[in-house]
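User: Sequence recovery, please. Input:
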């Protein structure tokens, strides 16, 4: 049972604490004048640092200019004590993380959720926004209508691409279990909209088979897994319905989770087409025939690949030199 405590902020009252984390407190509340239900998000720390203040302003500034049905609308950003209070619409939804904790998600439900999320991402990317923190906790679902909404733009970027510097794991932007390889700052490459596809792949993996592809209490181990370890194919696991995950769905999710962005889906519409193809077969026959992925996948923007082409011999020479230095007992050429 969450705490009930009335906090007054301008014309709004925060009535019931519904989520608490190290950084934020989220309340259900209302507009005192109209009685309209609202969500009130506060900074948890009494004396927030500069970065926390910037992130609160960022999520308001980005979301308020978006006319997308699949995001939670912000109403206002108000000063509260030493920080801010973000006032948002109350859709009646709960997080996918909470929803999955209460109910098993069938494949029939997954198709509907997944297609809604992909459609939202398509519109975000069309608006040059990289969300950078896609995960079940940042996706809301209405328990009755199954309508899906995306929340939390605190670390989102309003630009087509940015560079991630090398940082220690405790200050990385994003959530380690869902973070893309390039977001770790250890790949010497920029972050673009395809980083969201990787995090989406991790999210889909968890929704379909109920476990994360990589799990560790050690932050560096998690980072290493995202950089270098291939996840187990989902078709080796049972879904909530007791059947093996269809191989085509497993292939789609593993494509989303490719280490190099060039090997992932290049557009949300290409991903949506493949998911719809899977759903249609599943609904009609209860199974999914394997098919070539990405037939309709076309990037709508010009991106220069950040990998070496036509330098296989030179790359192998460098790798061999590194191996000799790392293992001095190996015979010299």
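Assistant: Recovered sequence (333 residues):
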């Amino acid at each position: 049972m969450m705490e009930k405590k009335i906090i007054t902020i301008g014309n709004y009252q925060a009535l019931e604490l519904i989520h608490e984390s190290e950084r934020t407190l989220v309340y259900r509340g209302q507009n005192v004048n109209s009685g309209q239900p609202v969500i009130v998000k506060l900074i948890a720390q009494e004396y927030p640092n500069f970065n926390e203040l910037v992130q609160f302003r960022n999520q308001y500034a980005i979301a308020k200019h978006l006319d997308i049905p699949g995001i939670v609308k912000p109403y206002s950003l108000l000063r509260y004590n030493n920080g801010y209070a973000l006032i948002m619409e109350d859709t009646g939804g709960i997080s996918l993380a909470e929803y999955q904790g209460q109910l098993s998600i069938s494949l029939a439900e997954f198709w509907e959720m997944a297609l809604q999320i992909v459609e939202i991402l398509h519109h975000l990317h069309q608006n040059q926004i990289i969300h950078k923190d896609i995960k079940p906790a940042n996706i809301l679902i209405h328990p009755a209508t199954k309508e899906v909404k995306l929340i939390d733009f605190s670390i989102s970027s309003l630009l087509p691409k940015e560079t991630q510097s090398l940082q220690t794991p405790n200050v990385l932007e994003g959530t380690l279990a869902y973070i893309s390889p390039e977001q770790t700052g250890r790949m010497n490459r920029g972050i673009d909209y395809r980083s969201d596809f990787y995090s989406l792949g991790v999210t889909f993996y968890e929704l379909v088979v109920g476990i994360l592809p990589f799990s560790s209490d050690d932050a560096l181990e998690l980072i290493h897994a995202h950089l270098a370890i291939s996840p187990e194919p989902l078709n080796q696991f049972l879904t909530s319905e007791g059947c093996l995950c269809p191989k085509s769905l497993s292939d789609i999710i593993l494509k989303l989770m490719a280490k190099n962005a060039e090997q992932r889906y290049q557009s949300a519409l290409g991903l949506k087409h493949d998911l719809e193809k899977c759903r249609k077969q599943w609904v009609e026959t209860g199974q999914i025939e394997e098919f070539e992925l990405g037939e309709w996948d076309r990037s709508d923007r010009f991106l220069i690949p950040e990998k070496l082409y036509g330098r296989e011999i030179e790359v192998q020479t460098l790798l061999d030199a590194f191996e000799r230095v790392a293992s001095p007992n190996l015979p010299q050429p």
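Residues 165-171 have pLDDT under 50 and may be disordered.
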